[in-house]
Amino acid sequence: MAHKKGQGSTQNGRDSNPQFLGIKLYGGQDAKAGSIIVRQRGTKWKAGFMTYLAADDSVMAKVPGTVRFRGRVVDVIPADPSLPRLAMDAK
After folding, report:
1. Which of 30, 32, 76, 85 is the most buried (most CB within 10 A)?
2. Domain map of the chain by residue range?
3. CA angle 72, 74, 40 (to 5 degrees)
4. pLDDT reading at 49 higher than 70
């Protein structure tokens, strides 16, 4: 004889909150000091010149400047000319 389940909760109703990972500033865009360039889990992107890795592996800018990607390395080219430059950028 056919019967219905009781009025319990559904089995499907669970969903996780989005983590909003990924690249936040692309190459050529301006970054402020302390701004997040990449949100990630693990180190897919590595911190390069004038950037640092936060506790949650986000890559952040140390100084204001322009974002540049070199393969898997993320750099910030400083806007202030008095700051040191990367050897390949020195002119």
Report:
1. 76
2. 22-78
3. 75
4. yes
